[in-house]
């Protein structure tokens, strides 16, 4: 498992000036195109979202009063509850509005036909399935990553790589992700290979 802290991730500013992205992981590493990718975005201004043809996305509000995503003829959705995931096709052209000001979101993207992703909001132990990749991000409380692993607090998390042949440090077999406090809430992105 690979730990991360949002505040220490490199920040990439958007070309349109409407926000910034902190990439957590993109796999396979160094490839021309990702199979799956996890990032955290700070959305500072209303505007269009970049299209990602052939990619499925799950966006989840982490902080702020929400973001309204609109794709003409497809959906008009206000994400206003922290930790509630919303899945949509990256092929769609969409615009984002910020009814309550800037916000932060978790963005999971998977290459269609290679990977499938789902995001849940656990309050109890998480046991990543063998062969799956994924990420756990702490919303509230304290969590432990694996037996004897790091203690994680809000804004921190771990990711793991389920690709066959990955090194021992990449596999989540060291154990479950376990809440350590009664108020513990996390986001778990389970990224499963297709086929």
Automatic annotation (TrEMBL):
SUPFAM superfamilies assigned: RmlC-like cupins
Superkingdom of this protein's organism: Bacteria
InterPro entries recorded: RmlC-like_jellyroll (IPR014710), RmlC_Cupin_sf (IPR011051), Uncharacterised_HutD/Ves (IPR010282)
Pfam families in the record: HutD (PF05962)
Protein name: HutD family protein
The species this protein was found in: Streptomyces showdoensis
């Amino acid at each position: 498992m690979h730990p991360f802290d949002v505040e220490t991730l490199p920040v990439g500013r958007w070309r349109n000036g409407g926000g910034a992205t902190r990439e957590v992981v993109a796999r396979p590493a160094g490839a021309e195109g990702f199979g799956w990718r996890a990032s955290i975005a700070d959305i500072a201004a209303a505007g269009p979202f970049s299209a990602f043809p052939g990619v499925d996305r799950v966006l989840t509000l982490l902080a702020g009063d929400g973001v309204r995503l609109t794709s003409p003829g497809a959906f008009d959705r206000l994400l206003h509850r922290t930790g509630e995931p919303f899945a949509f096709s990256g092929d769609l052209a969409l615009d984002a509005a910020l009814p309550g000001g800037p916000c932060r979101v978790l963005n999971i993207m998977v290459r269609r036909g290679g990977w499938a992703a789902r995001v849940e909001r656990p309050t109890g132990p998480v046991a990543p399935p063998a062969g799956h990749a994924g990420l756990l991000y702490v919303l509230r409380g304290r969590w432990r990553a694996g037996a004897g692993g790091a203690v994680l607090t809000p804004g921190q998390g771990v990711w793991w790589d389920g690709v066959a042949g990955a090194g021992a440090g990449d596999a989540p077999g060291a154990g479950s992700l376990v809440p350590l406090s009664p108020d513990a809430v996390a986001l778990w992105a389970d990224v499963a290979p297709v086929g």
